[in-house]
Queue: 2 jobs
Job 1
Amino acid sequence: MRIFITGISGLLGLNAALQLKDRHGVSGSYLTHPIRVADVSAYSVDLSKAAAVEEIFRAKRLEVVLHTAGLTNVDACEANPAEAKRLHVEVTRHVARAAQRAGAKLVHISTDHLSDGTNRFVTEESTPAPLNEYARTKWQAEQVAVKECPGALIIRTNFFGWGTPVKKSFSDWILDGLRSGRTLTLFHDVYISPILINDLVDVIEELIQCKESGIFNVASCDRISKFEFGMRLEKLFGRSPGAVLEPVSVGMIEGLASRPLDMSLGTNKVAKVLGREAMPSVEDSLQKLKDLGESGWPEKLQDAMRLTGEA
Ligand SMILES: NC(=O)c1ccc[n+]([C@@H]2O[C@H](COP(=O)([O-])OP(=O)(O)OC[C@H]3O[C@@H](n4cnc5c(N)ncnc54)[C@H](OP(=O)(O)O)[C@@H]3O)[C@@H](O)[C@H]2O)c1
């Protein structure tokens, strides 16, 4: 397949490019952070400019557009709702419209943030009840994606994995803290069902190959508090002397945008479609994270963002 990744310099985009490039023709776009990966073409394209998006999609004769670009900082979206709307709703409109015109399949990356957090393992059928601007604009983006490109595949997810020099993942942030010997506070009352990025990319590839469309939750089969997630990382990776993980309630932190307390996603639909008994557990995914770390994956991500001309 000829796959174009928007946000190829991002956490998900760069991992996806490295993982897919040996089996597919991969290209993509960044805004401010160039990447350099053998066999992958990357272009600087401001996705908020509709004509620029149309032009690159037409030129590349695409089969799949994996739309990962966005503004992932929840508090930044709250502080600047116009920017959140521009980057989620308007950019998605341009990407989806151009994908439809190019005859390409759109895979739109959404979020686990859409519910009000009162129910666990929400399904694809539950009506979203967004609590903040990030979630509101991501939900609007889903609707725009389907309107402009009716065969779109919408992926609701929460992921962790090895990050880039520019963007750290949740697990990177905890591992950095464990290594540096600091006290890290983690919410004991916020629940997620995070999937390893590399497993997420595999599932997306399978869903495309199965010609699926519509909304899919792609997450781990279990739910875990952010504090417990940190404890499991500590158990697996160890810690430097002095590093402490401290449980704290999200309600104790002032100035944060409202967040759902339970963001866990039900994954029966995706497991059934893919013929699996269940999606991976957090425990298995953490072991895989460690294995990838030992196999040189983080260095590949670092190399991809080492600028031309640097030693
Ligand atoms: N991170 C998570 O834990 C998480 C959880 C659930 C869902 N998601 C969703 O997953 C997707 C990917 O997240 P991520 O963490 O991989 O994102 P990220 O690392 O923050 O990357 C964002 C990407 O968007 C690009 N971008 C931003 N504005 C742009 C513009 N105007 N034109 C072109 N490109 C632009 C950035 O390019 P430059 O860096 O080159 O400027 C970057 O490549 C997002 O849609 C997010 O909502 C993320």
Note: The first strand starts at residue 2 and ends at 6.
Job 2
Amino acid sequence: MRKMMLVGRSESGKTTLTQALRGENLHYHKTQYINYHDVIIDTPGEYAQTKGLGRALALYSYEADVIGLLMSATEPYSLYPPCVTASANREVIGIITKCDHENANIAQAENWLRLAGCETIFPISSYTGEGIDKLLEYLSHDTQKIPERI
Ligand SMILES: Nc1nc2c(ncn2[C@@H]2O[C@H](COP(=O)(O)OP(=O)(O)OP(=O)(O)O)[C@@H](O)[C@H]2O)c(=O)[nH]1
Ligand SMILES: [Mg+2]
């Protein structure tokens, strides 16, 4: 499986998604630090929300094959500047979380992730399991193309 780093503001659902991807029981756990040894690299939301700490995300992205940019479907605003994915030299996918929520606006979250530069976007719910299989399938495929000739 390709190694994915999850990035998104606090409460966007990174840790809950990590638990859902692992098939664990969902329980609240505040992320305090980056554990980059795991196949899913969960990060504290404060790192994406604080300019100084954001540099650590850039550094740890080198440990991952894929960066997952999370956006809750209940989000009232977008944290991500337009075309921010261009600053990563890894594949960046969008993940819309909390699609089950009664106030979910999936289309709006998708627009913001597209504006950020995400071409591949997974709408998911860690609560209902919606979209988790597709995300796991995506991570299990190695899309890196080996050149036929150098
Ligand atoms: N309705 C709904 N709520 C969710 C879902 N996923 C997470 N939540 C809730 O959102 C809240 C925050 O979830 P976390 O997974 O802890 O968020 P986080 O992004 O890891 O937050 P930090 O560790 O602070 O960066 C918790 O109360 C979760 O129960 C979901 O799929 N649906
Ligand atoms: Mg967390």
Note: The chain has one domain: 4-140.
